[in-house]
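SAMPLE LOG
Freezer: B-3
Tube label: C17
Construct: single chain, 153 aa
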Amino acid sequence: MALFGGIREDTLKFVLELSSIVSVAEGEFFFREGDEAQSLFVLEAGRVAVLKKWKGHDYLLRNLAKGDCFGEMSLMDMRHRSASVVASERCDAIELSNASLFSVYEKDLEQFTLMQMNMGREVSRRLRDADERLFQAKLGATDVLAEYVVRSH
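STRUCTURE (predicted):
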């Protein structure tokens, strides 16, 4: 799990003790675009779809699977959720709250910093991917545009 890359075993145990495991049924949302953010999630099992709403329809931004994290961007920039995340199949995920992250900060600044760097790397990877897709779309490539998901709200 990229979020926990390089984290010492004692810190990982500490983090997991502060976290909860959430189970989400297929078709249910972890959160919706615009919600306030209090936590991030790391998928232990299942797959999710990250959706962005536009003109009353949801569009697929990406699919995530076991080991992937989501929700970290809102914790980093302290803004509302920028997209919705729905379970494509039954999911189990580790939920790590802001308060839990702050406890890691208080206990071990070095390990907290590493976790923040891991989150930053993940956001950076996704930004690079988005930049590439945007660039290709501007050049007229049609196979890189967001996929339409038949779902109206």
